[in-house]
Amino acid sequence: MNPPTKPVSESLSGLVGQGVNAIDTPALVVDLDAMKRNLSRMADFARKHGVRWRPHAKMHKSATLARLQMEAGAVGVCVQKTAEAEAMVAGGIYNVYISNEVVAASKLARVAALAHRVAAEHGQLAIAVDSIEGITRLALAMNDARTLRGGNAVIDVFIEIDVGQGRCGVPPGQPAVTLAHEIRKHPALRLAGLQAYHGKAQHFRSAQERREAIAVVVDDVRFTRKLIEAEGLPVELVTGAGTGTLVCEAASGVFGELQAGSFLFMDADYAQNERDPAQPNFEHALFVKTQVISSHQHHAVCDAGHKSHAIDSGLPKVHALDPGSELEYANGGDEHGILRPAGGNTRVPAIGRLLWLIPGHCDPTVNLHDFMVGVTGGLRQGTIDRIIRVDARGAVT
Asked: Is the pTM higher than 0.85?
């Protein structure tokens, strides 16, 4: 089951309406103005290219933000875990795609129960598969749920093909045809299309590298879809793409849905990519607020260590609010960050100085926090607008 919801404390909810200086450190902060601009740019981009967009909620893990995305035009959300799907549905999000394989009987029972729950709300649950065994187990769980609940819910099923990630998925071509025939044998399952996501390509630094990688993906998808449809089985939708490559999938004429999620917040790792001219200009919107707690001749120390931000994609960057105030963040351990002057700056920040870090990787950083503090009016003079609960924190089953 999804983890229990942690209530917002009075001290935290009491921050609403106060200035940004009232936020204790370290804290995860969302620049709501930048986030909304990112949201608007993504909605405009999808509309212009005639594709659906289903952002990954595994990034923000918040039903509140998922709702904002759907109000802006998203058809639903993606998640990677059953517990994340449960958290989204509990928050009133009824169009959810588990873009991952689920095979444990206990989890599949939860998936089937969730399919019936969203069907009662006129929603739809979807899931990815890459094996006959997985399809058989899913069908058994759905049939058991139908018997237990007396309903006839149907779950959408996407066949995942491995288009370069080297993770889950069957090879492009005939293996996917075999799975398509197997799905059609089960009344509780509906063949919804193909899942084709090249995660590694999201972080190829040059735009040309990313375009070349997705060109291969498009060829693999087109070939696979042609084989399946030659068997008289419709492939209604191809879904995939991420923030790094979404311009390629949108222009392919093959992908009908984009799953990009990090665009909403952006992180330090994505900022290292060469921007494709066709990509919307997404801004940093997620920050860790921190304070200098010790200052010395050549370095200072802040109170945001690795327990406040993920480091799998590198250390955070210090957001320079003023020209000439650049600082470099270095590893200080679990609770500390080491700060040194950089980029021509020669001044070490003084004790008490408030700083803003741009996390290296937004997804696992969010998962370290129970709440995000939403700010309007900017990081310098802004006001705390809302407290955003991380509903699916720790939802890893």
From this structure: yes
Of 35, 94, 48, the C-alpha closest to 261 is 35
Supply angle C-alpha 130, 136, 137, rounded to 5.
95
Average pLDDT, the chain: 96
Which of the four pLDDT bands, split at 50, 70 and 90, describes residue 79?
very high
pLDDT of residue 5: 63
Q: Which two tokens stand for residue 85?
A: 């799907």
Query: How many H helices and E strands in the chain?
Result: 11, 17
How far is residue 61's CA from residue 363's CA, in Å, rounded to a whole number?
8
Task: Show me where the domains of the chain are located.
Answer: 10-28+282-389, 32-265
Average pLDDT over residues 367-374: 97
The CATH code of domain 32-265 reads: 3.20.20.10
Give the model's pLDDT for residue 4.
Answer: 56
CA atoms within 13 Å, Cβ hemisphere of 156: 22
Give the mean pLDDT of 151-157. Answer: 95
The strands making up 95-98's β-sheet, listed across from edge to edge, are: 52-53, 257-258, 237-240, 189-196, 155-160, 124-129, 95-98, 77-79
Domain 10-28+282-389: which CATH class?
mainly beta
CB 338 within 8 A of CB 301: yes
